[in-house]
Amino acid sequence: MYNDREMEELHPVYTEDEQLLHHHHHHHHNHNHDDPISTSVLFNLYLGHFLARWGARPNFKFINRTWEFSVGLYMINVWPDSLLMAAAYGVVESASTTLFGPLVGQWVDNSTYPKVLRFWLLTQNLSFIIAGVTVIGLLVSPDLRVTNTLTFALLVVLTNLSGAVAVLSTLAGTILVERDWVVVIAEGKSSNLLTKLNSIIRRIDLSCTLFAPVVTGFIISFVSLTASAVSLAIWNILSAFLQYWLLNSVYKGIPSLSESNRKRELKLAMPNQPEQAPPSSYQEQTTQQNNYSEDAFMLKKLIKRVFDSQFCCAWRVYFQQDVLLPGLSLALLYFTVLSFGTLMTAKLEWNKIPAYIIGTGRGMSAIIGISATFLYPFMEVRITTLRTGLWSIWSQWTCLLICVGSIWAKNNTASSYLLMTGVSLSRLGLWMFDLSVIQQMQDQVPESDRAVVGGVQNSIQSFWDLMTYIMGLIISNPQSMVDAYYAIIDKQRLQIPNETF
């Protein structure tokens, strides 16, 4: 045990009061338990999160805001009668998170809170502004695909790359707020505070899902697609500075966040000790070179370098967690088109469902999802987090049976409405399951691994999301699916006697 003077020498940035708190860690937590968080600070957190989520599309297949709702409609209009452009956009966006998600998590873990906050909001809003401008260029020149192929390709590439950069920057913000800040804020407070914070933040997400598509759908239906793209760019310009001011005030207004950031600064300030090779390393290396050919030795060295890279280290950390199986279960839900995502939106548009109807359908699903954020705290307190997750996933599966039934509807419009109904009802179980898995990760993952695990989790989710969009690329023409379905029916009719029909 160090005395006060020794602690001052080891941690010179600590004040005298902080040293006292450090020595009396148990009393420090008791004090935090009785120290309520300012209502105005929490309001700034919620409002800042709302503004950041309204125009953004983070890496959640089931959270669809202004951009994610609009981009499917933009792409189906840029390349009519095909899901190719919508699927290609989804592939680029999902692949970027699959590849770089673990690295984003490590970057967040190795950066200070203010740095992550600035990078997140600046990059996210700038990327959506660029994407909005390029989409405007595609929409105002509908014949550009034929008249100027090079310009058309350039605008499409810029749109896809801007979306990919935006989703990575938003992932950094998601890890910062939802995986780190809420845990630090709730630490040492009442036992159910973390559950409440998670539920309210998810409620804000789903409120954006409720209102943003409805507003955008009416703009598209009663004004134009171009007007919606213009409004998206203007929104991100106006809201960027307000988002930063609100979230920065949260960081400054909650002492536990400043203390956690101070620990990060201390960790980053410690010089990395270079590993000293053992005395016999040169001889061992020479022996290896003698025993193996030069190519084999270089290959072995390359494999070792890859295995020791930050990317592989992040995956090793993830697979060592106790919440591995729940995390993988949540990720597998992303391998589906049964959500109001880009492909489903484009398919409904192809079936001549008006944009405002699609937006309203999304809104109804969001209302059901919002109800999950009220039901989850009620159930979690009574039957534990684990049992709540088990109940919710079976609830989702049952509701999705309606979507299976829509396959046999002969009328395309009726089939679309059955599909939207099943997806909307399933959101109750889906969001309760999501909250239960997230809270298990928050409770069981160590603080040092929290951001890394969050980055890898989003990477796995994006991988399965990517597989969905690859399927969309393979079957990019909706009419081909209809023709294949009726071909199977006709074949069955030829094989079975007519009196059975």
UniProtKB/TrEMBL annotation:
It is a multi-pass membrane protein. The chain crosses the membrane at residues 119-140, 152-177, 206-227, 323-343, 355-376, 388-408. SUPFAM superfamilies: MFS general substrate transporter (SSF103473). It is found in: Membrane. Its main location: membrane. GO terms for cellular component: membrane. Keywords: Ion transport, Membrane, Transmembrane, Transmembrane helix, Transport. It comes from the Eukaryota. GO terms for molecular function: iron ion transmembrane transporter activity. Belongs to the ferroportin (FP) (TC 2.A.100) family. SLC40A subfamily. Belongs to the major facilitator superfamily. Phosphate:H(+) symporter (TC 2.A.1.9) family. May be involved in iron transport and iron homeostasis. This is Solute carrier family 40 member. It comes from Mikania micrantha. The lineage of its organism: Eukaryota, Viridiplantae, Streptophyta, Embryophyta, Tracheophyta.
